[in-house]
Amino acid sequence: MVKEQALQLGADGHLVGVLARPSAPPRVAGDLATPAVLLLNAGVIHRVGPHRLHVILARRLAARGMTSLRLDLSGIGDSRPVPGALSFRESAVVDTRSAMDRLAADGERRFVLFGLCSGSDNALATAAVDERVVGLVLLDPPAYPTARSRARKLAARVRGLGTARAVLTWGGATLARRLRARVDAARGRAAGEDDAVTGGRGMPAIAEYRARLGALVERGVAILMVFSGALGERYNATNQLFELFPELRGRIEVAYFPGANHTFTERDAQAQLVETVCVWMERRR
Q: Which pLDDT score, from 0 to 100, does residue 190 have?
């Protein structure tokens, strides 16, 4: 049985979250207890999560003896916006730390942050400044194309065309499109380089991202990165992360779901994701 409780958090109670706990008390407490999981908003989707992902995951974790909090950040869902000069990222970090403070009053000392897309960015930013974060589950975090990923994309496209004539026609059209793009870029009309690489999502420079991940793993933060099949050449193979960051092989765990879309809409994909996260969390005991 799962116990759920709505909470108001933050200094003035402007944040809202739903706490899910196992019905039986934990076997151990304090520093030896399994970390509590904070489920952060995916973009502006409220605490239910995309296609109820956060609800399903929270209840599954509780059924396996783990505590979680589905949090609405300021201005999302039932949480009130807070006037001020903080950026979205800065505000998200403050809110997440406030939620950890509230759970710490109940005895929770260690936390795993779960986030999809911008939620993963907020999780990374919080982990960088708060050592209570001992684990991260990052769904479609920052990802960057590599020479190998571009080659895989090209090979898959060629295989899909079938005939030599179709390949030549496609190749000619692709070359013409790229030439036009270069001309437009020279005239200042094309999208910026970052948009071309990331699809419009702001991401850190590769060197900055490498340093951030390196600092976290050196601190002992356990990291599970989960990639969907929606990222194109930015992620199209299980171990692509280590093509770019070979020094992180064996230090970060990766799961790749090539058949899943960005929000894990399909029930089978969502079920596999939830099971993957639960098994990974059980190893944090």
A: 44
Query: Structurally, how many domains does the chain consist of?
Result: 2
The confidence score (pLDDT) of residue 169 equals 65
pTM, whole model, 2 decimals?
0.87
43 and 68 co-located in one domain: yes
Same domain (yes/no): 27, 165: no
284 closest CA partner among 77, 66, 45, 60:
66
Asked if pLDDT for residue 171 goes beyond 70, the answer is: no
| Res 71: pLDDT | 97
Q: Is the C-alpha dihedral spanning 224, 249, 218, 234 positive or negative?
A: negative
Per-residue pLDDT for 155 more than 60? Answer: yes
Share above pLDDT 70 across residues of the chain, in percent, rounded to a whole number = 83
* Residues 194 and 217 reside in one and the same domain: no
Closest CA to 92 of 140, 124, 131: 124
Same-domain check for residues 8 and 101: yes
152 and 139, same structural domain? no
- Provide the residue range defining the domain that includes 75: 2-144+203-282
**Residue 27: pLDDT band with limits 50, 70, 90:** low
